[in-house]
Amino acid sequence: MLARIANNLFWMGRYIERAEHTARFTNVNYFSSLDAPNKLSRDRQFVLQSIYEMVGEEDEKDEVLIEQDVLYNVALNPDKHYSILKCICYARENANSSRDLISNDCYETINKFYHSVMNYSKDYFVTRGLHDFTSHIMHQSTILKGKIRGTMLHDEVYALIKLGINIERATQVTRILQIKYDAAEQVTSSKPKHLKKSYEWTTLLKCVDSFDINRRVYRKPPTQSTVIEFLMLNPNSPRTVLYCLSQIKEHITMLDPLKAHEKNTALFLIGKMMCEYKYKTVEDIEDNVKEFIAHTFSSLIKLSEKLEDEYFYH
């Protein structure tokens, strides 16, 4: 397969996953703030800044953000590379260039998804359509990933798409952890002892669609310790970093099994990272949570760069 085609499949998966995470984060943060127990968590500027932080938009500290502008930029602004609309556009462009390699069902689903977003009323969205739009993105992303899993051969084409999905998911989960940990510190700055049981841990789990399963695993309200342990180190939930790492390793092995024992390859790096996380406990990171999250994020960025250099830029 041409490196260019492999790159398109990989990024198709990444953009699909990115659109879903951006939509869910925006939805949860905006609507959960309406019922938040803490005054700062309810502050509209605080919420809008966190949404911008999620997509990497730089805003001035003293700048007053306008709610409609922020929500429009993140969702439907065609001039913002990070908007959900642009993510779907990029995913479809990559699908177009790989049209003969993916199933008809998969292509038709992504094409319908694209047109539904492109035709979404901007006026309706900025006045009362936030919940409807973000729910639609989450729903359609789930359907599309189901088509990928259920209608395609599980060969190297499938492995490339899933590789993109899983590295994007691990990166987004880690980014959300960073944002919500910082938010929890700000919210509890006057009462540091409240950090471990901050309301932000509940919204964090909802942002990554893991609130219900976390409650089933721990059978108690979420705390800093249980949330960090679950999202970073649980090997069985598909929304955790460790699970995503195992999937990344599996899909890289499908692409190039001969590199399993070569040093300084993407497969070597992911195996090394997996072993570190597999045998780490939450007690090991409790005193340095912020540093550990930052370390995880930078490691995932390096892994992504290594993958692109190794497989897509020959």
UniProtKB/TrEMBL annotation:
Pfam families linked: Alpha-E
InterPro entries in alphabetical order: ATP-dep_Glu-Cys_Ligase-2 (IPR051680), DUF403 (IPR007296)
Domain of life from the UniProt record: Bacteria
Stretches assigned to the DUF403 domain: 1-312
Protein name (Swiss-Prot/TrEMBL): Alpha-E superfamily protein
Organism: Formosa algae
